[in-house]
Every structure is written in C-alpha cells, then in structure tokens.
UniProtKB/TrEMBL annotation, chains A, B, C:
Residues 10-83, 96-167 form the Glycine transporter domain. Belongs to the UPF0126 family. This is Membrane protein. It comes from Catellatospora coxensis. Its main location: membrane.
Amino acid sequence: MDSSSALLVGDLAGVAVFAASGGSAAVGKRLDLFGVVFVGFVAALGGGILRDLVINQVPPLAFADWRYPATAIVASLAVFWLHPHLDRLRRTVLGLDAAGLGLFTVTSTLKALDAGVPAVGSCLLGMLTGIGGGLVRDLLLNEIPVVLRREIYAVASLLGAIAVASLVRLGWGSVLTFTGAALLVFVVRITALYRHWSAPRPRLGGGATTDTG
Amino acid sequence: MDSSSALLVGDLAGVAVFAASGGSAAVGKRLDLFGVVFVGFVAALGGGILRDLVINQVPPLAFADWRYPATAIVASLAVFWLHPHLDRLRRTVLGLDAAGLGLFTVTSTLKALDAGVPAVGSCLLGMLTGIGGGLVRDLLLNEIPVVLRREIYAVASLLGAIAVASLVRLGWGSVLTFTGAALLVFVVRITALYRHWSAPRPRLGGGATTDTG
Amino acid sequence: MDSSSALLVGDLAGVAVFAASGGSAAVGKRLDLFGVVFVGFVAALGGGILRDLVINQVPPLAFADWRYPATAIVASLAVFWLHPHLDRLRRTVLGLDAAGLGLFTVTSTLKALDAGVPAVGSCLLGMLTGIGGGLVRDLLLNEIPVVLRREIYAVASLLGAIAVASLVRLGWGSVLTFTGAALLVFVVRITALYRHWSAPRPRLGGGATTDTG
C-alpha cells in the first residue's frame, strides 16, 4: 500500500468511526433516521471541511469525492439499524470517538504539512480537525462538548500531531510510524478515561464552592 | 428573464424569507432590534457564506454584493416592525422556512454544479445550504435545530437537490423546471408538517421509555 | 511604527484580550487547564479564521503565523494562573471583551478593504470578526451570546467599522485615526454597559407578558 492510499484509508476509517460515534450519540437522544444520519455526517465530515478550506483544497473532499459522504452515510445507517443496547451506547461512543481522534489527527496534520502550512500551524490544525467532529456532535445534541470536560482529550490529539510533525522533520515518516502516532492518541485518550486522568483546574480565590462546569 | 438574473432573484428571495424566518423567531424570544437583525442576517446569509467558501467564490456574495446584506437587513427590520401577533409567529416561521428551504436548495445546487463540483457533492451542498440557515438560527436561539426534529426536513431539501441535478443531467434545466423543484421542496415540507409525517426512529433494546429527543 | 506593523500589533493585542476574555469566562465555569486554553484560543482566533477564509488569505494567520496561536495560548495560560477573584471575573470579561471588540473591528475592516472587498461588505466583515470571538465563546460555554442580549454591542462595532471605511475613503487613514476608531468602539460599548443603554424591543400584540429573551 503506497502512502497516498494509506492516507485515504486512514481518512475514510476516521470518517466511518466518527460517523458511528455521532450516529450512536444521536440514537441515544432518540433522533429519527435523518437526524441520526445528519449528526453522523456532520461529526464525520465537519472537521475535514474546515481543514480543507484552511489549506485551500476546494471544493473540500466531503463534496469533491463521493466516497467520503458515502462512508459517513453508510456508517450512520449501520448504527441506526445495528446499534447496541442503550446501556452500552455511552461506552461505544467514547471508544469510536478515541479511534477517530487518532486517525483524523494524523491524517490532517500530514495534509497540512503537505500543503505547506508551518509545523506549529499544522499541529494546531491536526488537533482542531481531530476534536472538531466530536465538538460539533456535542453542540448539535446540546451537550457540553467532551473536549471541554475534565478528561485529557485535546492534549492526546496534540501529542499525536506533534509526534507526526517530528517524524516528518526527522525523515522517519512511514505508514508504520504514522499508524503508531494514531495508536498513541488512542491509548492516551482511553487510558485517561479509565484512570480518570484530568488536567489541573483553576483555583478560585473568591471562596466559590459550587461547580458549574 | 435570463437564467442568471433568475438565479439572482431566487437567491435574494431565499435571503428575504430566511431573514424573515430568523427575525420572527428572534421576535418570539423577545430579542432587541439588533438581536432580531443579527439572527435574521445569519439565518439568511450563513448557509450561503459556507457554500461560497466551499466552491471558492471569494469573497462570498454576502460581502461582495451589497444587495445580499441589504435584503437580509430590510427583511429583518420589516419583521421587527410589522411582525404578526404572537400566536401566529410559529406558523409564520415554519412557512417562511419552508419557502427558503426550497429556494436555497435549488440555487445552491445549481451554483455548485456550475462551479464544477460533482453531482453527489452538489446535492449535499445544496441541502446543507438549504438547511444551514435554519440550523444556525436555532442554535443561536438555544432551540434543538428543526432539522433534527421528527418531521421530514432535510429529506425534502435532498429530494429537491436530486431533482435539480437530474434536470441538469437530462438537459431539461430551465427557469420553469427549477421553480418546479423549489415548489416540490416547499410542498413536501409543508405536507409533512400538516400530516405529521416523520422518519423512522431507532428501536432501543435497553428498555428505554423516556424520550429526550 | 509603520502601518503594517501597527496592524500586526493591533491584531495581536486583540488576540490577547479576547483570549483573556474567553479564558476568564472558562475559569468562571470551572473548566480545566485545556478547556480554558481551548476557549481562549477559539475566542481569540475563531473570528479571524473566518475573516481570512472570506478574503482568501489561506492558510489563515492563526495557522500560518505562529505568533497568533502563541499569543492566544500565553494569554489564556496567564488568566488560568493569575485570574482575579471570582467576584471580579464578570467585570474583567466585559472590559476585555470591549477592548477586543474595538481592536478586531478596526483591523478586520482594514484587512477586508485591503483585500478589495467593497465598503459595505468590509464593514459587515469587520463587525462579524469583532463580535465572532465573543459569540463562539458564549456558544461553547452554553450562554446566550452577549451580542443577542439587550445592550448595544454589534452597533458599537458597526459604528467603528463605518468610521474606518469613512477615514479610508476620505484619505484620513493613519495609525492615530484608526486607534481613535478602536477607542470609539470601546467607549460606546462601555458607556452602554454602565448607562444600561439598550436597543428597542419588539412590541408583541398577542398579549405576551413573559420575557424569554
């Protein structure tokens, strides 16, 4: 498998898992067929559309290449008909979300570097594409976005993006090492979930005891 | 009327009805003058700005052609001063919204096809532009977006977009047939509202009986 | 200081104050370190990313020039560690927000004019960039956006944008006069806050007495 088809496979896998994550969350909210497909579609393709606009790849792949929307729609429909029992939905969403986070972070950082975006901007764009899908899914479903909650989320994505930029800089880029970077994101995110790792919170001097986060 | 001025008229009519729909919804929330104009502006022009970025028409018409913002602002102001009684506001918003959905779906699908976007992508972009205005309006006003509720909404838009792409492919495109496609969207949407058509909902195996949609 | 470095300084100052405003609001919601930095980042750079896409400056400065994200991140971190006592947070957010509104309105209107956007579109884009940061901040934190509330907000920004476009048209543009336009926005906004100026609200004929705004 050459590097450009590996990138396509990684990208489409990310689309599929984010669509499944968005679709599962929409099923949990009891949305109808089109609501489930719509949330899956936006969760899977929203981040990539923004990325393609930023690196001036127009029209974005979500519109220029039918395999992208087809993958998102098929994955959302699969979730609609085959979704797991309600008590396992939350775990399913979180697991798929972590996989999509890893895949999108890696493919988007690579695409940004290819388009000539400087390393710092490429890492930020990779992270934003990675977290964008889950962010939009949560906003649409009226949840506080997962990225703003206490667990390590954006930082897992940022670590992966920095790993990709470093591999490219060192000349060690290959399908194998980039897959490793995607796995790194997945493992950090899942471990943070299970161990309840969390980032430091601000100390408030005003004597506040209520927690509105 | 030649085809490009027909496109302009259809686009501006869509801007006016979506601005009126956004403005009416904002009046219902008792926002002030600028809030009403702002929600009307974003509902009318937000979808088109995204569309123009995607097809690389920059700056987007909302900024490049003063008739677009002027139409949105005048329509919002008209709603502010002339708005109907409160008990008719909801029906007004839904009717204007259905008209805007039809107009924007048709004009945006045509613009995307003209810009060389493939047929599948053009239909999706036409649908997203059509539903984008109402989506942003509802997010700003802290409502669950109408597109995610139970009635047929996105599917009416998608039918219209597919009709437009088919007409173009068959060489049957004209002001008359495209107007028919816009009417199709309007009629499907309004009929769905009155008949309470709805898309299938997921069956949940976990014994859930509460409905959070 | 020549005019292009003045524009850079004004832009980075706007980034810093909007990041501080977003970070302070996130601290008030008790978000963790990464949530605070993320909200600060998006509040500071979101409006400018949209502006750069609209005027076809790609990749947007937020990704192309590392000083932009660095400024946003440092300002957010500073707020995280040095934030004022809780009882002064709301006032801090409002003051920083007014300063950012003035700076972004002026720099974005100038950039749009430089990019060849017509005067009406440039004023609208300057206003949208100015109000965009606070809008996204409030949406992320699940607040009704400040721009939709009763105080004069968008109108202060629009006045500043019209002042900038007029100064350019009259040939009176200079660092001094543009700084005056930014101050105008700040003073109008702060005065409106202290005097409780508000825009007119719609009269509802349906006998509604409850206020849901």
